[in-house]
Amino acid sequence: MRAVPPEKERGNATAEFVMVSALVVLLFLGVLQVAFALFTRNVLQDAVSQGARYGAMLDKTPADGEERTHDLLYSVLPDRYSTTISSSITQWQGVEAVQITVTAPVPLLGPFGVAAQWEVSGHAVVQR
C-alpha cells in the first residue's frame, strides 16, 4: 500500500523542477561562456604567434606579419569583434625578434565584449 503525502506537500514537484531547471540552465550558460572566453584567448595567442613567425621570415616584414595576424583573427572571430594589432622589431631574450601584439576585448557577454581588455604578444626570431 502506497502512502499518500500530506495535503500541504502536493504540487511541490512542479515548483522544484522549475527552480532546479533554472539553476541547471544558468550553470550550463556559465560553462559555455567560459568555453567561449578560453576559445577566444587561444585564437588570439595562435594568431599572434603565427603572425610573428610569418613576419620573421627571410623575405617578409613585420607589417606582413601584422596583416597575417589580422587575416587569421577575422577568419575565426566575428567582424564586430574589434582588436588593435601592432608589430615591431624588438630585442627578445638577447636576439632581434618580430613582436606582434593584439589588444582585444574580453568576451564576457558572448562575442560582444566589455570594458576589460586582453593584450597578447607573440615573438619570433628574425632570420636575416
Helix content: 40-55%
Number of strands: 3
First and last CA, distance: 88 Å
In the sheet with the most strands, the strands line up as 1-2-3
Count of helical stretches: 2
Strand content: 15-25%
Rounded radius of gyration (Å): 24 Å
Shape: rod-shaped
Order of SSEs: HHEEE
Poorly predicted parts: none
On the 0-100 scale, what is the average pLDDT? 86
- Biggest sheet: strands, sense, closure? 3 strands, antiparallel
Name the structural class.
Answer: alpha+beta
What does this structure look like?
This is Pilus assembly protein. Residues 11-53 form the TadE-like domain. The chain crosses the membrane at residues 17-39. Keywords: Membrane, Transmembrane, Transmembrane helix. By secondary structure, the protein is an alpha+beta fold. Helices cover 46% and strands 23% of the residues. A hairpin with a 2-residue loop joins β1 (84-92) and β2. The model has no long low-confidence stretch (mean pLDDT 86).
List keywords for this structure.
alpha+beta; 128 residues; 3-stranded antiparallel sheet; 3 strands; transmembrane helix
Summary, kept brief:
The chain has 128 residues and is an alpha+beta fold. The chain has two helices and three strands; from the N terminus they run ααβββ. Keywords: Membrane, Transmembrane, Transmembrane helix.
